[in-house]
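call fold(seq) -> tokens
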Amino acid sequence: MAEWKSLLSSGRRVESGSRRKDEKPHITAEERRRRQEAVDYARASVGLEGFKLSEADEAHAERFINGEIDINEFVKVRRG
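ret:
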């Protein structure tokens, strides 16, 4: 897990609570690319272990990739 998190360490941080709900996220194309690479890496790693992300996990990952949530919210333990 630390490996894919390190892909994001130099990226611009987007605070999840710092914008209105109707406001679009502000991340650069480079940051979006980094996030996509990190999610792809994590997805492949999980796949190598014989698992597949649920639809809810895929949707959560898309929110991260699109800049709707930051890394802290993305890796926070979720229930259900």
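The radius of gyration is 13 Å.
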